[in-house]
User: Fold these one by one.
Assistant:
Number 1:
Amino acid sequence: IEMSVRGSLSSLTRSFSSHPLSNASLPAIKAAVGHIPQKLKTNGIESNRRARLEVLRKIVTRMVREERAELQWNRAVEARPYLERLIQLAVEKGSSDEYTAEMVEWWLPEPALDYKLFEVIAPRFVDRPAPFTGLYRLPAQRLEQYIQNKRIFWKRYEIGVLEIEGNPFPAVVSTPSTSSNLLLNQLLKKSLEARLNTLEAKK
Amino acid sequence: QYSQMLRRAVSRLNATLDDVIRQSLGGGMGAPPLAPALASVAAVPEGAGAGPSPLGSWRVTEMVEQMRTLWGVPKYRTSHPKKQTRKFAYTRLLTPFEDITTCEQCGAKHEVHTICGKCYDEVRVLTNMIKKKLLAYNPYKGERPEARPIEIRFTKDEIKAEQERVEEERKGEIKDGVRVIEMERERPTWFKRLEKPRP
C-alpha cells in the first residue's frame, strides 16, 4: 500500500526531485555547445522552444537509427550535445535507471531504437572514453530551397556529417596510410642503404 | 575646451527644457498665466524674443545656431546605369576564396576548415550501400537492428577459414557469431580490412 501511495504521489507532483537527475554525478559532455542559440524551424510547427526540441528529437532519432547522417551544420552542432548526453546516460546509468528510461522514451519514439541504444551503441563505450560522437564539416553545397510558381530558388547550405563513433561504415576522414612497408619500398630502402655503406667503405 | 563645450551644451539643454515646460504650463506664448484671475495680479505675457528669462538667457534657436555645421548632400540624382554598375560590380558580387588547400589523398581543392568533398563522395556512396543492408529490418514487425559484430565483406575478399572463426569463438572474442554483410562490388583500396570485426 505504501509503495502504491508513493508511486501515485510522485506522479502527482512530477517535480525534478522525484527523478534524481544526477547531473552532478555524470562527467561533463565532451561536445562543444554552439555559442549561438538556434531557432530551428520546420514545416507545420510554429517556431518556438517546443518546435526546436521537436527538430532536435528528430535528428537524435535519425542518428541512433542510422549512426551517420549529413545535415545542416548549425543543426548538427546544436544536436550533438543532446546525442552525447543520451549515449552517456545509456552508458553510465543503463536501461534500469528511471530517468534514463524516461529520456529514451521521449527522445527515441521509434520502436526498437531503445534496444539499439542500450544493446548496440552503449556496449561500444564501456571501455572507450568520451566523446561518443564525431562532427565533420563538408564543403558548402548549393541546394534547392523552395519552389515558387515553378521557379526553383537555390541556397548555399553549410553541411556537416554527424556520426556516432564505432559505426561499421568507412571512416569519414581516412588517415593517410604509409606505404613504407610495401615490398618494393623496403627493397629500395635496403638497396640504397647498402649502396651508401659500400661508398663509405670505399672512402 | 571640449569639457567646457559639453558643460555649456548641458546647461543650455536644461534651460531649454525648463523654458518649454514653463511655456506649456503657461498656456503657450501670448496666453495669460494659469493663475486665479485676480484684479491685483498684473498679467505679464512673454513676447517673442523677450528679455532673458529668470533661469537662463538661452533659447532653442540660439542653441541650434551654435551647433550648426554644413553637411554634404547629393547634388544630382544617380542615374539608373550608374547605380546598377555600382551595385552589381564584379568586385562586390564575387569574393575570392583565400583559404583553399589541397587534399593529400586525391589532390582536389577544398577550404581549410572543411574535409575533402571528392574523397567524402566515395565514402558516402559506400556508406549508403551498407546502410541499405543494415536498415533492412522492420521494427513494426518486431524485427530488431543488428547487435552482433558486423563484418563487411566484398567480392574477391579472402574468407577466413572456418577453423579460425571457431577458435576465436572458443577464446571468447566473438559471441553468437558475426553478422556478415556482403557487398556486390570489390573492396576499395582506402577501406582497409580490419583484423577483427568492429564490436
Number 2:
Amino acid sequence: MFPSLLRAYSPMKMRCCFQRSICSASSSLVPVQLPSPMETHFWYVLPDQVKSVSLLNQYMGLLSPIEKENVLSMPGHQLQKRALLARALVRTTIARYQINGHVDPRSLKFKKNIHGKPEVVWQSEDGWCQPHLHFNISHSSSMIACGVTSNSRIGIDVEEKQRKIKNNVLAFARRYFSLHEMEYLSSISDSEVQHQEFIKLWTLKEAYVKALGKGFSAAPFKTFTVQVKTDSKRSFVLAEDLVFEASEIMVESLNDPKSLTSSWQFALLELAGSHYAAICMEKDKSIKVGMKVPVRLTAWKTIPFVEDECVSGTDAVMPIGGLIKL
Amino acid sequence: MASVSTSCLRFQPLLWQSNNTCQAAQRTSLKLVSVSWAKSGFPSLRATRFRVSCAANPLTMQKVCDIVRKQLVLSPETQLTPETKFSELGADSLDTVEIVMGLEEEFDINVEEESSQNITTVKDAADLIDKLVQKKAEAGA
C-alpha cells in the first residue's frame, strides 16, 4: 500500500493523509516507492513514544557490530536509546524502498564519503544499476528524523523550538553567522521571536551544509547567507495538491557569488508543534534557473515495525518557509 | 612521584611542567588509573589507559570540562576523559559551537572556524586553547 494512493482531496481544501498502518508483531515494514524528482520523504520518530524494551532489543538486532558498540559506548540510557533509534530509523527507512532486493534492514552496509558524510553501500550482483537514493539524518533530544530523496543531494536538520541557547543570541550570530543574518536577527525586538528566528536560521544553514556533504570546513557558516524573503503567507490549491508558499528561501555564498547556490531548494517546517525542521535538497537538473518549483513533501511519523502515520497534510506538519507541496 | 594505591593516584603538579618527569611518566605504562584531584575540585578522570600529555595543562583541562558539563548539562556521575568525544556525550553541532564560544570567552581567544571543526574531544579543545593562549602571550610580549 503506498501512501500516495490513499490521499483524499477534501472540499475543505485540507488534504488529510491519515494512513495508519499497524503492522502485526511479525516485524514487517510497509514498503514505499522511491520519491519522485523534487520530492522528499521525511520520516521521524519520537523517542518518548518508544518504550517497549523488547522493541528496543529488536532494533538492536538490526545494527552492525560497530554500530552496537557505538550505541553502548554512549553514557546513560537516554543517549543510548537516542543513538539506537537513529540507526534503527536509518536502516528501516532505507529498507522500505526495497532497492536491489534489500528488504532486510540488517543487510544494509554504510560507509562515509571522503568528507565524512554517511552513504549506503549498494551491493548489486551486476553492479549496473546504481540506485540514486540519498538520505540524511538529524536528531534532537526528542526527535530523530531521516530525509530521503532520489537523485538529489539532501540535508536535514531538526531542532527543538524551545532549545536553550547558552550564549547571547546576537553575540552568537555576530560570531558565527553572516553579517546579513546577524543584522536580520538584530532587527527583531521581541526576544522570543528573535530566539525562534535564530533556531530557524540555524536549521536552514545546517541543512545546507549537510546537503553539500563536503564537511563543515567547506562551507563555514560565516561564508554564506540564508535569506528568508517573507511575503504574506499564501496557500492555494493547485489541482489536487495543496501548495504552500510561505516564503522564498535562498542561499548565497559570500566568497563565491557565482557558485551554484541557486541549485538548492529549501523547506522549513514546524513539526508536532515542538520542532523546526529544515530540508535542503538539490534542484532537479531539468529545472531551468529561475523556475519556481515546489518541493513535494510526504512526512511520516513512525515507530518502525509498529506504526507508520502519514502526517503531511495534518497539523503535525506546518510549512513555515519555502515553496512546499504536500 | 606517582604512587599507585588501590583507590587513587595523586600526581604532583610538577609532573606536568617538568619535561624530564613527563618523559619518565610516559615510559611507564599505567593501566587502570584513577585520578582524583580532591583539593582543586578536578573532575575525577577514569581511564583504562591514561596517557600523560605534556601539552595538556591541567587547569585548562578542568575549565574545558566545566564548560562542557555546563553546556551539555551532564550529570555529575558522567565521566570525562581527555579522549571523550563531545558527540559521545550527546552533543550536536550547535552544542559544539556553543562550547567553542564558551571557551573563547573564558580564555579570551579567537578560534578560527576551520580549527573549531577539528575540536571533537576534550583534549582537542584544551590543546588548541593552550596553543592560542601561548601565541597570544608571545604576540603581546
